[in-house]
Specification:
About 45% of the residues lie in helices and about 10% in strands.
Length: about 270
């Protein structure tokens, strides 16, 4: 009887600790009452995954959405951050002609992302972190809008092109450079969900090295796999390397976010 009483007492004392744990980090899966309890008093950082729909060799057309969302889910607890719904449509460039691709104009995209960032700021987030999965012209728009919103509303914004920032991780893990839908991006998707990777459809002729500046330009780009360097970046479908790459990329991205927030705080911004 005494042991039962002690157990019940310990459980009662632990209840406040359990109530401090948020039930989900995903904004579209949380209810408004719990959101109000945690944001911004206990959570003031939000991760916004952005991407597009375009061909990616033998992985899914939505790889640019799959990657940053999985990244956000993996690092959100460590950063004490919420995850905003993924912006799945973007400014697809030279691959817009491929089946299943979508292209949103800059004239439509820029004000839309602007209103999303304003909404995140209005809901109490001080640190707005954009985990961008798609480059090209989309990167420039995101950076410009994020800068404008930061200056206008006094929030702190960070835009990260994960594959570019983690290029050193690509070299560390694979000992060579990657590419669009190449070695690195295919591995990252493979680590998330192997069913999205169709090795049986792959052949090396599906890849083309990106031209050096000022040499030539082809639209649509002749391959859905674009290599950053000639002769490097072909997918290898190595499961062990894929998992290692996923973990190391996420650790590097999380480190950048934590260090940026630390320095913002240190500067009193």
């Amino acid at each position: 009887m005494k042991k039962l009483f002690l157990f019940q007492l310990l459980l009662w004392m632990a209840l406040p600790l359990f109530s401090q744990q948020i039930t989900t980090r995903e904004m579209d899966r949380i209810n408004w009452m719990e959101f109000a309890e945690f944001v911004p008093k206990k959570i003031n950082t939000v991760l916004l995954p952005t991407g597009t729909l375009e061909p990616h060799g033998v992985v899914n057309n939505g790889a640019d959405n799959t990657a940053p969302f999985a990244m956000a889910k993996d690092i959100a607890d460590e950063l004490n951050a919420m995850i905003a719904p993924t912006l799945n449509y973007g400014i697809t460039g030279s691959m817009a002609a491929y089946p299943g691709a979508f292209k949103i104009s800059e004239e439509a995209y820029a004000p839309f992302i602007r209103d999303i960032l304003k909404g995140l700021a209005r809901n109490g987030f001080k640190n707005i972190i954009i985990l961008n999965g798609h480059g090209g012209g989309q990167t420039a728009v995101l950076q410009k809008v994020a800068e404008d919103i930061s200056n206008e509303l006094g929030v702190r914004t960070l835009v990260i092109n994960w594959w570019s920032y983690a290029s050193d991780v690509t070299m560390e893990v694979f000992k060579e450079d990657g590419g669009h839908a190449g070695l690195n991006e295919t591995a990252y998707i493979q680590a998330i969900d192997p069913t999205l990777v169709h090795k049986e459809k792959y052949n090396a002729d599906m890849a083309t090295a990106y031209p050096k500046a000022g040499t030539y330009s082809a639209v649509p780009f002749p391959s859905s796999i674009g290599l950053y360097q000639e002769g490097q970046g072909y997918p290898n479908f190595d499961e062990v390397q894929a998992k290692e790459y996923f973990q190391k990329v996420n650790a590097k991205i999380a480190g950048l976010i934590k260090e940026t927030i630390r320095k913002w705080d240190m500067a009193g911004l």
